[in-house]
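Appendix C reproduces, verbatim, an entry submitted by the partner laboratory led by Prof. M.T., so that reviewers can inspect both the input and the predicted structure.
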Amino acid sequence: MAKYIGPKTRIARKFGEPIYGEDKAFEKRKYAPGQHGQNRRGKRSEYGTQLNEKQKAKYTYGVLERQFRILFEKAQRTKGITGEVLLQLLESRLDNIVYRLGIAPTRAAARQLVSHCHIVVDGKVVNIPSYQVKPGQKVGVRERAKSLEVIADSLAGFNHAKYPWLEWNEAEKQGTLLHIPAREDIPENIKEQLIVELYSKQ
């Protein structure tokens, strides 16, 4: 899957849920996109259901196919439930942490902030969105970027208490990954076991 730069509402409608967050256009038209979107019927095959779940996870976290497979293989080698570990690895990506901390309004915006060297980890600039943040590490806004409008607007009124695995320091404009989130704390509506079943067939 190449990087998708088209209308995000169209993708959200494909999966039947607002995977990119609040979306007024999605709420107006929850049916699938296309000329026959309202009339689509028929039951998906087991493979189709599993593939759909993997695609949803990839679009949600903004990860390409090769990156996703690498993360899955890493999850397989890690102690624990493979599907749960996969989601934890996705949650630990730097771009996702930046998004969860409220520094950026979307994961796409978070990736851009990271790529443009506006984000620091333990005081050092990191410009790799896929960087895996470890418990105890501090993720913050680079000093010269603290006045950026997109960051200020995103942080305004953001509820930092909704993610118990993260701690936010408003004065320093930085957050700390306290621990890897448990599956029940990850809010994304992804059936990770279907993804595991899909890869087990390949």
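The longest helix spans residues 46-61. Additional entries are available on request from the coordinating office.
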